[in-house]
Amino acid sequence: MKTKEFEKAIDALNLGIFIDEMKLNHSNVRQVTGHLENEGIIWNDKGEAFSTDFEWRENKEDGDLVGVFGSSLERNKLYDLKFE
């Protein structure tokens, strides 16, 4: 699949997903990484989705952000892509 096909399919989900990275193999998409506010999403070359939740950790004393941690990826059919 080409990048435009993946972009259109992700936009068609109407969830406001941000695309962070597309990995290509000879101009075909191999993997796409994206995110919502508190969730990371990875699609394989077939458009099958895997997701993880983000956890924001702050310093207890002053509330400064310490880091963002994610759990392991799990298959999530909610974000599977449908190509035209």
Index terms:
84 residues; mainly beta; six-stranded antiparallel sheet; 6 strands
How is this structure best described in words?
The chain is mostly beta strands and 84 residues long. It has one domain (3-79). Helix content is 12%, strand content 48%. The protein is built from 1 helix and 6 strands, in the order H-E-E-E-E-E-E. Strands 1, 2, 3, 4, 5 and 6 form a 6-stranded antiparallel sheet that branches.
Question: What would a concise description of this structure say?
Answer:
By secondary structure, the chain is mostly beta strands.
Order of helices and strands: HEEEEEE
Oligomer type: single chain
Summed up, the domain count is 1
- Percent range for β-strand residues: over 45%
Class computed from helices, strands and strand pairing: mainly beta
Q: Any idea what the shape is? A: elongated
Give me the count of strands: 6
Mean pLDDT across every amino acid position: 92
**Unreliable residue stretches:** none
| Secondary structure tally, helices | 1
Helix content: 10-25%
Termini Cα gap: 11 Å
SSE blueprint:
Layout: H1 3-12, E1 18-25, E2 28-35, E3 39-44, E4 49-58, E5 65-70, E6 74-75
Antiparallel strand pairs: 1-2, 2-3, 3-4, 4-5, 4-6
